[in-house]
Amino acid sequence: MEHFPEPLRVEAAHFDGESRWWKLTHYYRYISSVGVITVPTGTKTDLASIPKAFRSIFDTAGPWLGAAIIHDFLYSKSSDLHFRMSRKKCDEIFLEAMFNSGIGWERNVIYAAVRVGGWKSFKKK
Length: 125
Fold this sequence. Notes:
Number of domains: 1
Structural class: alpha+beta
Strand order of the largest sheet: 1-2-5
Shape: globular
Number of strands: 5
Radius of gyration: 13 Å
Low-confidence stretches: none
Helix content: 25-40%
C-alpha cells in the first residue's frame, strides 16, 4: 500500500529572519493508521524543523521530509478541524510515517528529539 500517494510539491515562499519558508503547491496526503491525513494546498512549512546545530547530520529536506510535513500539520491549529489529537499521538503518527517512508535508525533519534522539545510548538500556530 502506498502511504504517500502524491509527490510532495513545494515552492519557496519567503524568508523570515534566519528561517526559510515554503508552501505546498498541491495538497499532500498520508494514509495512516488513523485514516487519511491531508495537508491542504497553500500550507506553509519550514520543511523538517531541525535545530541548526544538527543540520549537518539531519537535513531539513532529508528522506523524513514527507513525514515532517504531516507532523507539522498535525501540530498546527488548522488540523483541529479534522484531527483532534494529543501531542503524543501526533508524535506517534510522525514515527509511523517515518517508518512507512523507510527511515532507519534516524527515525528513533528524530522521534526522541520531538518528544523532548515538541511542546514548544504544539498548537502555537
